[in-house]
Specification:
The complex is a heterodimer of chains A (283) and B (317). Chain A has a domain of 196 residues. Chain A is built from 11 helices and 2 strands; from the N terminus they run H-H-H-H-E-E-H-H-H-H-H-H-H. Chain A is 75% helix and 3% strand. Chain A is globular, with a radius of gyration of 18 Å. In chain A, helix 1 crosses helix 6, helix 1 crosses helix 9 and helix 9 crosses helix 11. In chain B, 76% of the residues lie in helices and 1% in strands. Chain B has a two-stranded antiparallel sheet with strand order 1-2. The chains are: A mainly alpha (283), B mainly alpha (317).
Amino acid sequence: MLLIDGVIYGLQLSLLALGFTLIFGLGGVLNLAHGQLAVIGGISAAVLIGQGVTPPLASLLGILVAGVFGLLVERSLLLPTYRYKGEARVLFGLLLTLGLALVIDGYVKYRFPFEALALRVPIPAITVFSITIRTSGIIAALVASLALLSLLLFLRGTTLGKAIRCIIQNEVGAELCGIDLTKIRIIIFVLGALMAGLVGITFGLFASLRPHMGFELTIFAFVVTIVGGVRSINGTIAAGILLGVVHAFSSFYIGAYLTFIIFLATAALTIVVRPSGLLGYWT
Amino acid sequence: MIRGTSWPNYIALLIVGTVLALFPFSIWGSAYYLRLATIMLAYMSYVMAFNIIFGHTGQLFLCTGALAASSAYLSVVMTRELGVPPWVTIPLGVLCAGVIGALFSYVSVRRGLGVIFVGMVTLVFTFVFYNLILGLRGLTHGEDGLVTRSLGLGIFENRWSSYYIFLVILLLSLLFYHFLMRSRIGLAFRALRDDELTAELAGIDVTRYKVLAAFIGSVLLGIVGSLYGYYNGFINPDVFSFVRVDVVVLVMLLFGGMATLLGPILGGAVFTAVHEVVRPLGALSLLVYGVLLVVLFLTFREGLVMALRKVAKLHIP
């Protein structure tokens, strides 16, 4: 029961962190507003449902809103950052996205302070081998794994995916080979934003998503990315599921506050002990 | 610059000191504005400390609030639980902040972490610390906070004396900063900031100076943090939260000008005014801060002091 809950939760974390790590690996921008993108997706879906739109359609629209927002941000705010290289770009992007995160947080908290997305599926639970699982959890897990799988196939199988992995390895080299950096950066950022929006929706399936959760989600995405190894796609997914399970067990046995601290301490230790990620050598 | 004359700095310090010392009279000692001005002085000192850490040695400490809080909480909790007078516990709290700051710096320099990872590790520390305070409910009363008035530190009973105490601390830290930058240490900081590798090749002990900068800055944060805790009359995690301290300090420093003497003062003064203007907006003020951070960083990276230097063609420290 706890294990399944943990895996469901971990899949969401993986999805969130994958967008985070792709954006960082590709654009060199540590997107501190990543959790806020999920909040945008989830809250706009909640608002739409409040307007009388059916939940599936509202969810789809919510994801789209997050994607469109990502596109706007990439085209406007992040353009100047690409003019810098290396450390300067990272710092620049960090501060800009921090500003963006504050803007989104401030607006959402001001406009929709009590809005919360909680999607409830009619059938409450099913029982398999005397284990009770909520249907909504299964849907969340299915959606997340489907998204993860299609993303993996996209990165492994298609030419575009190969180009993306090329850039992650070496930006200048990729550009010399005739890969259009600008186009691919847009694609990745929008893809990351869409995935964040999707996570915002699926979070509403098994928990409820509230406006103030943006920073928390960003931190989770960051922790998973760090533990999985920055720029390592498989590592990120594995770390997400692992941490999800750890999260489920430790919040059941030792409480939520300590869990959060354990989470963060894991990340800090990983950075200090093995900067390439705990699971970095798997890939 | 180290060989140049000190006169511009002394004159600037004199002007700043005089203006700030006379300021309470211009508002006729109004309790509300005097409190605002006192908080402004505390924030200017925070910015000064952050300036030494980030402005001079490029260590992005996103835990200024948490370091200040660690000192304040240690002192207040010890005073409450053990009955030791604050005069004993404040130095302990300050030392604690300094050691934590130095430790972060040491680890990050030793592991060769880039600016981004220092930022993230310290940000993580901020959240861990915040949760620790909430979790240790028995000692800290969680979000309800602790009342620090009548804990035996009698100096903040009068609003005038409180203002001048913070003013003295700010001026002393400015003076200290001035002499620090003129010493060999300041020279090393400057070399570090220009190019770390070159500095190391020239025989500068990078680890030592970075840790030293972090220690000095954190100690200053600790002093201001614990005194602010007593002045404020009550502390809770919100008083030192990321949004209320770190973000504000970062914006003030960026606006005023990094690695300058007057940057923290100008940035602090301007943003206290801005804060008063946007405060009625409530939750929207966060949005305003976000927009300011973005706009400032996109268009005004050098800060007010640099801009004034260019426009007025004066040597402004």
